[in-house]
Amino acid sequence: MGELTRKGFRKRYPNLAEELGGVGTVEIQAVRTSAKEAEKASHSLHGYEPTAVDFIRRCENDAQALEIINFLEKNGKIEPDYARHLRAQLAERGLQSFGKRRKSGCYWCSE
User: Fold this and answer.
1) Residues with Cβ within 8 Å of residue 107, at least 6 apart in sequence
2) What angle do CA 90, 94, 96 make, to 5 degrees?
3) Which of 67, 107, 106 is nearest to 87 (CA)?
4) If you placed Cys at 50, which of 26, 38, 54, 69 could pair as Cys (CB 3.0 to 4.6 Å)?
């Protein structure tokens, strides 16, 4: 079977193409690889405890993010394996791989 172009895909599968890129499509801008962190992020806002990624997304540069990761690991807030993973993600994919930068004090809002 030949390579399918975007136009060809839209022609063959119009409904699926609309679902994949139509109105209401949400772009995923962050990566969560820890089930524990994902669980914390999925709970309601009542009693919400920010995750490591929440803190990292407030950083202006890689040095700040690394400082946050080191602090959380040192104080037992995240496991050493997870800290290593976060450092690797920061080094390989950059600060933007954790998602769009958030303003200080807003853990649940998208800006």
Assistant:
1) 48, 50, 54
2) 115
3) 67
4) 54
Answer yes or no: are the C-beta atoms of 41 and 30 closer than 8 Å. no
Sign of CA dihedral 48, 109, 85, 87: negative
Q: What is the pTM of this model?
A: 0.58
Tens-place pLDDT, residues 19-48: 776 655 556 656 666 766 666 655 555 566
Closest CA to 83 of 34, 28, 29, 39: 34
What would the pLDDT profile of 38-91 be if each residue is shown by its tens digit?
Answer: 666 555 555 667 889 989 999 999 999 999 999 999 999 999 999 999 999 999
Cα 57 from Cα 96, distance rounded (Å)? 8
Compute how many other C-beta atoms are within 10 angstroms of the C-beta atom of residue 30.
13
Alpha-carbon dihedral sign for residues 73, 78, 28, 57: negative
